[in-house]
Amino acid sequence: AQTVTQSQPEMSVQEAETVTLSCTYDTSESDYYLFWYKQPPSRQMILVIRQEAYKQQNATENRFSVNFQKAAKSFSLKISDSQLGDAAMYFCAYSLGRGTYKYIFGTGTRLKVLA
Amino acid sequence: DGGITQSPKYLFRKEGQNVTLSCEQNLNHDAMYWYRQDPGQGLRLIYYSQIVNDFQKGDIAEGYSVSREKKESFPLTVTSAQKNPTAFYLCASNYQRAISDGYTFGSGTRLTVV
User: In chain B, which residues have their Cβ closer than 8 Å to the Cβ of A107?
Assistant: First the structure.
């Protein structure tokens, strides 16, 4: 069965510094998608970044980038130049590239940004 | 603007009552999903539907029911059989042919048993 593990329940970062959130997953499939979602206090889920497993190049969206290690089944999120508005719960998610397309989510990491 | 609307934002249920959570989307997405969010447990899939008049159980379907009579609508009923319904419920949708686009989420419904 596919699983997603986020081993850091909570992380803190100083404003303007860089922080990395960890995510590992377990699958025997070769075609899948990985996502990071942000859930601020409003609880509205926002897509931060996505990665297709067949792409070797790490995805980047402005201050957000990933380190995708397919062999190690690792998908970490790096936030550069952290801002107060980055404070939120961050969820890692996995989806097969075929079939039901349902997502499996990790348990989340709460990120605190210190002024 | 296109999006997903969940209502109500807050819902209170008495013991033994059934309640229905609404989810409507105007994105023309074919697939819709219901997730339950509890502290420390992330999001768990309750039900999902890939096409009108068809739906499948997720990982925690017991005590819940759904219908998909229209493409735009995917209501969730929390029945009295659900022993611990207090949680935050999120509805999501996507195009199945555009998996890499990710889900679009509603703003959620907070259900509390009183």
Answer: 40-42
Question: Which residue in A101, A105, A108 is closest to B96 by CB distance?
Answer: A101
Q: Which one of A101, A107, A109, A110 makes the best mutation probe of the B interface by having the most chain B beta carbons within 10 Å? A: A101
The residue ranges of DSSP E strands in B1-114, in sequence order, are 4-7, 10-13, 19-25, 31-38, 42-51, 54-57, 64-66, 76-78, 87-94, 104-105, 109-113
CB atoms within 10 A of CB B29: 21
Q: Collect all residues of chain A within an 8 Å Cβ-Cβ radius of residue B105.
A: 44-45
> Amino acid identity of B11?
L
Q: What is the pLDDT of residues B9-37, one digit of tens each?
A: 999 988 889 999 999 999 999 999 999 99
**B106: pLDDT strictly greater than 70:** yes
Residues of B in contact with A35 (CB under 8 A): 102
Six-digit token pair at A14?
């100083």
